[in-house]
Each structure stands twice: as structure tokens, then as C-alpha cells.
Write a structure and sequence with these properties.
The chain is mainly beta. It is built from no helices and 15 strands.
Length: 216
């Protein structure tokens, strides 16, 4: 988009398009500088000009196949509310699967299908994560899972506390945020479902799955 500076006129809209496609005229003196420290953002009908910098997000890679049987059929583990009970202090830690590429995967135990949507990821900016969870056995939305995200760069570098909360709406879709990242690199966002249930039986609703997120 080409930007022009024109004399200001009293009572005239300072921002206007001229007849040339992709040209914007302004009635105010216009100074273009590198960012930072100055940011110029002009929002037109279908245009955006700014210095936001690159955004990260889910990482493309090999498709997840850990819940596909040798014959090509789907592996789907049923769950039961009756199998949910509170873990005692001596319960073993859950066994986590490999962190997934892309933005869709079955959970580690093949109970749920999880779709992830992420707003643009940049350091020190608020990010929102949305996970849609359905049962692999019948495709129904998984409700009441009290989903939350465990986010870390490595074993000693968790995401900073950002007052994150979770809202379920519509049924089976969980919006988690705000989340903030304080360093560039390849992070892991591990989502937990029904975490209050002990993960000590195949039919326990307890589930988890991790996705890679790149932060520029």
C-alpha cells in the first residue's frame, strides 16, 4: 500500500482513499520510522500495515498416528465416569506420550480427539488457546473436563503466571487464557482433562496431550 501526506483541511476526514487502487492519503504529516520505537498501524478495509513482527504458533510436522492400528483401523479407548476416583498420595505419575506436531491429535491414551486453535504467538503478548475435545468412541463433545494447560519451554522453564483461566463454551470446547511466553524457542503446551481423576485404569476419564508451539 502506498502512503501519501496531504495538507490537512478543516472538517475533512484525515484518512481517505484516492482513486488509485492500494493508495491511502492522509491529511496529517506522515513519518515512517523503523520499529521499535515507533509503530505505525493503518487499518483500511482489507489492509493492515504495522511492525508487529513475526508470529508463532503450532508447529507443522508428521501427522499423529499413535491411535491407528496396524490394519488401518482407529484405536478408541472408552471411558467411564465410574472409573473416576481421586488419586492418593502414592499414585504413580501419569505416563505422557510424545509431544505432537500440528494442531490436531488423539490424546496419549486414545480416549479423545483434540483440536487446537491458537491466536498469534509473540513474546510477552497475551495468547489464547482453544481446544475442542471429542470422544474417539462416538465423536461426542467431552463436557465437564475442567481442561487446563501446562506450558513450558523445558523442565526448568515454565510459562510465567498470567492469571490463566478456562471457560467451556460451547460444550466440549475450552478457551484457555491469557497465556504469556517470556522467551523464544519451541515450547510445549500440554493439556490435561479430568485431572482430578486418578490415571490408574484404562477407563479413567483422565487424559492428556501435548503440542509444540514455536515462539519467535
Amino acid at each position: 500500500m502506498t502512503l501519501h501526506s496531504a495538507p490537512a483541511e478543516v472538517g475533512r476526514n484525515p484518512w481517505r482513499f484516492d482513486a488509485s487502487p492500494g493508495t491511502l492519503r492522509t491529511g496529517y504529516p506522515l513519518t515512517m520510522q523503523s520499529c521499535p520505537p515507533v509503530r505505525l498501524i493503518v487499518v483500511a478495509t482489507l489492509g493492515f500495515l504495522g511492525c508487529m513482527g513475526p508470529a508463532g504458533g503450532a508447529v507443522s510436522g508428521a501427522a499423529d498416528t499413535h491411535c491407528i492400528a496396524a490394519d488401518g483401523g482407529a484405536i478408541a479407548q472408552d471411558t467411564s465416569a465410574a472409573a473416576c476416583h481421586v488419586a492418593d498420595a502414592n499414585a504413580p505419575m501419569p505416563e505422557y506420550g510424545e509431544t505432537r506436531y500440528n494442531a490436531q491429535s488423539a490424546d496419549d491414551d486414545c480416549k479423545y480427539d483434540v483440536q487446537l486453535t491458537v491466536t498469534p504467538v509473540r513474546q510477552a503478548e497475551s495468547v489464547t488457546l482453544v481446544v475442542k475435545v471429542t470422544a474417539r468412541s462416538d465423536g461426542a463433545p467431552v463436557t465437564g473436563a475442567t481442561a487446563h494447560a501446562e506450558i513450558f519451554l523445558n523442565d526448568t522453564h515454565p510459562a510465567p503466571n498470567a492469571g490463566t483461566s478456562t471457560v467451556e463454551a460451547p460444550a466440549g470446547t475450552y478457551t484457555i487464557g491469557p497465556v504469556k511466553f517470556d522467551a523464544s524457542g519451541r515450547w510445549t503446551a500440554r493439556f490435561h482433562f479430568f485431572e482430578s481423576c486418578a490415571d490408574d485404569s484404562e477407563e479413567s476419564p483422565h487424559g492428556h496431550v501435548g503440542f509444540f508451539l514455536d515462539v519467535p
